[in-house]
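ok, trying the design again with the full structure, not the truncated one.
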């Protein structure tokens, strides 16, 4: 294993002050900014690292910045920013412009989102290739960590990167940013690797690294194995905000990015389904194969990580949470009101089974599974990606063991969305895909999710209720899609 390259990194204490007026305007406009609809009242610095010193050509800063907003509980969301600084911005980088600095250490410079620039993106890859240590930033490789982002030297993995640390990440791969990202940002390197950079970050163990590493150790081929990752040292937050974070735990390191193999020519499951729908093609074979892939992942996770048994006492808080979300949704979307009793019965039926003594197994799951989280390779193999779970929820909640039915319900709802995205709508297409997906799952797991209809209905109802609120707030034209599911799920029997 090669020695890590280590160097200190210092930044001016006035750096954030000089950037703040520009960030206040730029940050809320980004697709991955979670606090839309509320103004940013202040910023505080969690950590700052100089990756390239300011020269006449290019300066590069890595920042963890907390955005404070009114009516927001807690200390505010923390965002990862890669800020480039140039004397003048070339036209190709115009979409990445943040603004022109008129104060502080970058006075006279133009600053921009450096992920859109090949040179800064290549700096990140080189740091991972050489296992660099720059200030509080750590760039680790397969064999360096056990999933928490902290090097332990114990090895592990599935061969995506060997123990000698040489040659697995070639130097000089050309970088390009993926422009279709929503909650995070991705960079593709030479069609060989893809780096997912988390934008809204939280301290602690991140399942987007933890679970793919665990699956790699199990030899599960359905999830691209992490090759390298970026994180901060535990205690590595260096700004004045570093010790005031109310949601920190004993491990206050931040996982910032994960590098995985790039699946060349892969088709996104959502786009593939829509293309097949538009052509009037049957999608059941793909749905069946995707069910088998999902089962493989669930079984590998159950082998790799602890499982728990859910009885009445353990299930009651989950059911109470579903009921609370339904009540809040009815207050937000009055159209739900006529269906509320029927929807509540889905949760009460599950509670009744638990009260009678039935138990369920809970384990680590994907946590946010839908067609868009799946890739089909040119050879026809399905892969599951993006294991961070629902980004709006705390990490501790995302890492709780849950019944696999939650993932299955998410995929069933995704088929429904695809079928309703075309006009005229094709609800029969969704029913065929849902059945094929469950059958494929049963072929691999040995149990069909449909044999536990009460559990599956409860989780699908919870998902549909969430969708109603989301669509009512953000995409009213799509509201009929989850409302049609609500009508079905609320019907007696």
């Amino acid at each position: 294993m090669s020695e890590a390259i280590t160097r200190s990194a210092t930044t001016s204490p006035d750096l954030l002050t000089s950037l703040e007026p520009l960030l206040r305007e730029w940050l809320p406009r980004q697709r991955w900014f979670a606090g839309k609809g509320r103004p940013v009242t202040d910023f505080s610095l969690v950590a700052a690292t100089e990756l390239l010193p300011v020269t006449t050509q290019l300066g590069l800063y890595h920042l963890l910045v907390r955005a404070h907003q009114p009516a927001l509980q807690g200390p505010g969301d923390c965002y990862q920013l890669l800020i480039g600084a140039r004397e003048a911005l070339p036209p190709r980088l115009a979409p990445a412009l943040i603004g022109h600095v008129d104060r502080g250490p970058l006075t006279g410079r133009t600053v921009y989102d450096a992920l859109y620039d090949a040179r800064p993106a290549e700096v990140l890859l080189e740091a991972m290739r050489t296992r660099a240590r720059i200030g509080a930033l750590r760039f680790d490789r397969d064999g360096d960590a056990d999933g928490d982002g902290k090097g332990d030297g114990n090895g592990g993995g599935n061969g995506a990167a060997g123990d000698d640390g040489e040659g697995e990440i070639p130097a000089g791969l050309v970088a390009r940013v993926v422009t279709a990202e929503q909650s995070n940002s991705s960079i593709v390197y030479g069609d060989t690797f893809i780096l997912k950079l988390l934008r809204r970050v939280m301290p602690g163990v991140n399942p987007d690294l933890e679970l793919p590493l665990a699956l790699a150790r199990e030899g599960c081929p359905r999830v691209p194995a992490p090759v390298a990752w970026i994180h901060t040292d535990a205690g590595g937050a260096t700004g004045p905000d570093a010790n005031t974070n109310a949601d920190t735990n004993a491990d206050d390191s931040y996982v910032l990015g994960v590098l995985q193999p790039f699946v060349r020519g892969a088709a996104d499951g959502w786009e593939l389904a829509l293309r097949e729908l538009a052509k009037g093609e049957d999608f059941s074979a793909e749905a069946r194969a995707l069910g088998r892939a999902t089962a493989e992942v669930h079984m590998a996770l159950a082998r790799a990580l602890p499982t728990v048994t859910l009885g009445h006492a353990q299930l009651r808080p989950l059911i109470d949470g579903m009921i609370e979300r339904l009540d809040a949704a009815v207050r937000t979307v009055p159209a739900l009101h006529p269906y509320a009793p029927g929807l509540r019965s889905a949760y009460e039926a599950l509670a009744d089974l638990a009260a009678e003594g039935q138990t369920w197994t809970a384990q680590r799951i994907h946590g946010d599974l839908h067609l868009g989280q799946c890739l089909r390779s040119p050879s026809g193999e399905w892969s599951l990606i993006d294991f961070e779970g629902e980004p709006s929820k705390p990490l501790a909640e995302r890492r709780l063991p849950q019944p696999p039915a939650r993932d299955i319900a998410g995929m069933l709802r995704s088929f429904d969305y695809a079928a309703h995205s075309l006009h005229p709508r094709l609800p029969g297409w969704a029913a065929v895909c849902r059945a094929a997906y469950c059958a494929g799952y049963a072929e691999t797991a040995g149990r069909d999710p449909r044999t536990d209809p009460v559990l599956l209905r409860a989780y699908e109802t919870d998902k549909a209720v969430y969708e109603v609120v989301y669509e009512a707030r953000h995409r009213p034209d799509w509201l009929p899609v989850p409302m049609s599911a609500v009508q079905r799920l609320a019907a007696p029997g």
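Keeping the full-length input from now on. The first strand starts at residue 6 and ends at 7.
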